[in-house]
Amino acid sequence: MVPRTKGSGNGLTIARRIAAGRHSMPSAMSKIADVVTEHPAAPVELTITELAERAGTSAATVTRFCRALGFDGYTQFRVGVASEIGRGDADESWHADIGQEFGATDPPGKVLQTLVALHVNSLESTAARLDLDNVMHVADTIAVSRHVDIYGVGGSGVIAREFQARLYRIGVNAHAWSDVHDGLTSAVMQDARCVAIGVSSTGRTDETIQMLSQAGAAGAFTVAITHDVDSWLAGIADVSLASAEPSHYLRPDDLSVKHSQLLVLDLLYLLIAQRMFSAASTRLAASAMAVSAHRRAQRTARAASASERTDDSMKETR
Prior knowledge:
Elements lengths: L13 H8 L5 H12 L3 H4 L2 H8 L3 H10 L5 H12 L4 H9 L9 H22 L2 H12 L3 E5 L3 H15 L4 E4 L2 H8 L6 E6 L6 H12 L3 E6 L5 H5 L2 E4 L12 H21 L1 H16 L8 H16 L2
Parallel strand pairs: 1-2, 1-3, 3-4, 4-5
Helix pairs in contact: 2-4, 2-5, 4-5, 6-7, 8-14, 9-14, 10-14, 11-12
């Protein structure tokens, strides 16, 4: 691979960097190189998800491709491409990724108001799309399961780990997997008494699809959490729970997508806890007591005032 350097300056054009590193690129990255070589403007015109789809690979692979060429990420890569082909600069990349709703010089108040509207809309859209019968079926199955595997990569992996931690606190034997090798190893150990959940906004992440597919083949009840109910992930799952689609701006970094996924999992968690009320309540109380010694007592107004006076006195003596 081409040695990585900060930013985009290693003295070679992007085309030459690609040519220099082609012999050592994995096949998935070579597909991206093919797209960029045949259509040099593709990174400027496409988001990271769209480029990954055109190349038949994942967004994570696109990021690795960019870093192999010496860029910190996809945004820096597309700015470099835009500069080389004379199609624009950072402003063009900003508009392609974030859109017109957010300007680079917008005041904080406007940015905040726009974000609030976006996130509220995402949560409302998720609530409207959810099939509560399916949600209840999944909750019932998890409540009586022997084991729950949760698969997710990248940002979805963070969501998967959060859900695993919450289930574990109420007594559900759950594991979260982001590494495909570890996930596949766990997936083959599942059976008809197990539940496997795949979390992927697009539903096209290869690693998550592979892990969920393997768990299903082993006999587990499979669940997909994705905004695309016609995606590969949804297609292999027994049940698909729909979250909100990403907005036309802030992609691919739209955190409202993660919040919509969290809403689905939060709802599942509460319904599962209802079905395990006695055991869940006991375990929650026990875990709260276990960590209570590591939490400081709440500050009173008098203590806060005394602390402020001490700080003032220390300042005066300096």
